[in-house]
Each structure stands twice: as structure tokens, then as C-alpha cells.
Amino acid sequence: MRVSRRSLVALGLALALLTGACGGGSGGSSAADASPASASARAAAAEKQLAKNTLVPLEGAPPTPELPVTVDSSDGRQVTVEDASRILPLNGGVAEIVFTLGLGDRVVGRDITATFAEAKKLPQVTKAHDVSAESVLSLRPTVVLADTDTGPAEAIDQIRDAGVPVVVLDPATKLADVTTRTTRVAEALGVPEAGKALNKRMSDELAAARAAVPKGSKPKVAFLYMRGSAAVYLIGGKGSGADSLIEAAGAVDAGKGAGLDKPFTPITSEALVRARPDVILMMTKGLESVGGVDGLVKIPGIAETPAGMDRRVVDMEDGVLLGYGPRTPLVIDILVDRIHQR
After folding, report:
1. Which residue, among 242, 305, 318, 226, has the nearest Cα to 273 in the 3D structure?
2. Which residue numbers delimit the Fe/B12 periplasmic-binding domain (predicted)?
3. Helix pair 39-52, 328-339: axis angle to 10 deg
4. N or C: less crowded end of the chain, CB within 10 Å?
């Protein structure tokens, strides 16, 4: 169920918030600027920004990389980066960081998960989620940014054997990983001060979003991962990635609260009864794959939950919800507003 837009007053406030809540250099809104009454305006501003599918880079001139640098790679290696003139991120969230740092004009290709507007015209170097070493090397990158999930391993080895520095990062699965990953990307590209500025901006935005959580509101939210065409029906638990977002938005992860200690567990009526979510959170394509809210409530056990009975379903675009990048504060703004509505 999509939450309708608020009043024209809220939308007017949203426009005013766009430069404060979503933009800026090391600034952005501070926690002191937020209040529970501003949650709808912040959410409307965030929705407007996400609908544009564009990024908001740091203010000012793009940073100039100071190289060479030697950094630790998550595959146990130390990697020396001498040239950041042709950057190739093999992860959508990492690409968002590179562009937001102001280095987008140096990016020469993209992973399939880099779906934001600035990256769309770049050549894609992955098929499904597998990296093509030949496609990567044809773009003559001077540095490649990957993560431990990037593969196949043979392709990464082939890129490295060709003399291209490959910096491997840990996957981002919780809110705290956003700043860690930003710091590591900025250091690898020789722009550590820009990384600090971006982390400061995101920290301010997150604080403002969280300050808008209504006092005393603590709904239980279940994250459901579904792909109806493949008969995949899972409920998130500890480590799903969504649990950190749900908690940051002032709610309780229903799966985690029900004792689900794995990231994902097949949905059963019994598991849903234990979880008793007040709100269901899903990716947009996942919700569409089961026929929207009407189809969702027909899945055994869903209709018997408080969320199912009230049809309280929140969905967000797949590439943004768990992207854990510079747009994550916008996700929290929207969740704070939607999951606390009654």
C-alpha cells in the first residue's frame, strides 16, 4: 500500500528541505533542525530526490587525488594505487560513493547494480552479477573497486594479473558500514578529506532523520524478501541488512525479535505468527512479483498478522533500500515517516 502524499504545506516544506536535508557539502540538516512534526516533510523531500534517481555530490570543486597510496584490501592484500584517472567500481553502492565524492567524471564503467542516472550511459561490465574480465580490461581502468561478493574469483584474478590494482571491500550490511566503506573508498582514491566531509554530511542527515521518530512509537516491522515467479518467500532476521535500517528508523525488526538468528528464513505461518509485524517492509519488485498488496495478503499467514489485517505495507526501490550508500539517509527519512503512521 503506497502512502499518499501529505498536504500542500508539507510538500512546500519538502522543497525547502531538498537542499538542506539531501544536499550540501559537509553540512546538511542537523538533529536540532528536526522534530516529529517534520517527518512527513522530510519523507516527501526524500521521495522527490529518489524519484529523480540522481546523486547529490559534495559541494565545491571535485577533489584532486593525492597519490600514490597503499591501502589494505579485504582479500588480505595490500594494494598500491598510483592513478585514479580511470576508476571502475564493481558494485552499485561503491559507485554511488565515488560519484558523490565528486569523482564521477573519472568512472569508466559500471556494474549492473549501478542504476542511478549518472551511471546509465557507462558501459556495463557484468552479466547478471558475474564480472567479465575482458569487458573490464577493455576499458583500461587504472583502479578497480570490488567487494568480497564480487566474482567469479577467476575474473578478479585475471584483472589483477593484468597489472590493474584491485581494492576489495567488505560488503555493507548494516548502517555503520556506510561510513566505514566511504572512508575506505576515499582513502583508496587519494581523497581522504572528501571522505570525511561525506561522512559528516551523512551523519548529520541520519541524526536529523532519527530525531523525527515520534516519541513512544515502536512498531514491529518484518522485512520480507519475495520473488513470486521463483517461489522465493523469505522473512528477514538478524543480519538481513534490513534489520539495521528498521532499528535506525526507531522500530523493532520483527523477525529478529521473534528469534530468527539467520539473515533469511523461509516464511511459514508459524514464523509470521511469532513475528506479529505491525508493518511489512519489502522491495518494490518483490511486492510486484506477488501481485501487489492484494496478492501479498493471500500468502498463508500474512493476512493473520496485524500488518496484513491493516494492509500496512511499505515498499522501496530495490537498488536503494539495501544500497547502504550516500542515499541511505533518504531511506531512513522515508521509513521514519511510513512505518510510524497509524
Report:
1. 305
2. 86-342
3. 130
4. C
Q: Are residues 201 and 340 in the same domain?
A: yes
Amino acid at residue number 168: V
This prediction's pTM: 0.85
C-alpha cell at 138: 577493455
Mutual angle of helices 328-339 and 192-211, in 10-degree steps:
10
Residue among 335, 269, 337 nearest 305 (CA): 269
Question: pLDDT in tens for each of the 342 residues of the chain?
Answer: 333 333 333 333 333 333 333 333 333 433 334 444 478 999 999 999 999 999 999 999 999 999 999 999 999 999 999 999 999 999 999 999 999 999 999 999 999 989 899 999 999 999 878 999 999 999 999 999 999 999 999 999 999 999 999 999 999 889 999 999 999 999 999 999 999 999 999 999 999 999 999 999 999 999 999 999 899 999 999 999 999 999 999 999 999 999 999 999 999 999 998 999 999 999 999 999 999 999 999 999 999 999 999 999 999 988 889 989 999 999 999 999 999 986
157 with 210, same domain: the answer is no
